[in-house]
Amino acid sequence: MPRWRKVLLIPVIALIGSMAPAAATDRDLHAYWDGRCKDCHGDSGAFARRTLRVEDGRLVGTHHRATLEQFLHNHYLADDLVAPVMQMLQAQAAASPVFKEQCGQCHGSASEFARKSLAMKDGTLTGRASQRPVQDYLRRHGGLAPEQVAPMVKTLERVLGEVGGTP
Ligand code: HEC
Ligand code: HEC
User: 73: Cβ–Cβ under 8 A, 6 or more apart, which residues?
Assistant: First the structure.
């Protein structure tokens, strides 16, 4: 290949690379919410529980029942984020606020905690500082009843995914 073509091609490839949409996994939905939606709606979890419901497996708004998805396409959201944000809100609408009530006074919001302190290690949710599986850690920490531990681990795994922290 002539030298001038190589010189031209490299910046073109770099440009295409930088325009490619970020993979779903390195996207932080909670940061996105906090930057674009929080001013009007407050915390996403509280908003979801207050105004949204899951009916027949579908997310339904108080005002926008059948048409929530169309509404969101015209409501401050980048098109490719409508589906992941709806998924996040749906999980939040269905979840009880255990983290907020029993862990939040020490750990802040679940998304902050997940970003700072959690990671997936060989498919297991693990504390970054303790290097211990969260499932084990919570048996003697946090005051959860034994049957609340597995659902909490699931919630935290979901939140870690929502902040872009799972592979
Ligand atoms: C400037 C203020 C503002 C911003 C920013 C904003 N919203 Fe809204 N949102 C509203 C208002 C006002 C309504 C209710 C109006 C309506 O239902 O038509 C609403 C309604 C909604 C509803 C439907 C609630 C229902 O009861 O049906 C959802 C879901 C929603 N917003 C999500 C978001 C998301 C996600 C973002 C960020 C990407 C966002 N909003 C940003 C003001 C805002
Ligand atoms: C009274 C304060 C407090 C409450 C309430 C609390 N924690 Fe903690 N948690 C801590 C502190 C402090 C640490 C740091 C480790 C240590 O020094 O014990 C920690 C550590 C952790 C870790 C390990 C993090 C790592 O990096 O290894 C996990 C996981 C955890 N907490 C989950 C929870 C969950 C889930 C709840 C609620 C059910 C909860 N905690 C409630 C104070 C608290």
Answer: 79, 82
Cβ neighbours for 133, distance < 8 A, ≥ 6 positions apart: 124, 125, 126, 127
Residue 149 and residue 13: Cα distance in Å, rounded? Answer: 48
| CA 120 to chain CA mean position, Å | 14
Ligand number with the minimum distance to the CA of 131 = 2
pLDDT at residue 95 in the model: 86
Q: Which residues line ligand 2 (CB under 6 A)?
A: 102-103, 105-107, 117, 127-130, 134, 137-138, 141-142, 144, 152
| pLDDT tens figures, 48-104 | 999 999 999 999 999 999 999 999 999 999 999 999 999 999 999 988 889 999 999
Count the neighbouring beta carbons within 10 Å of the beta carbon of residue 95. 19
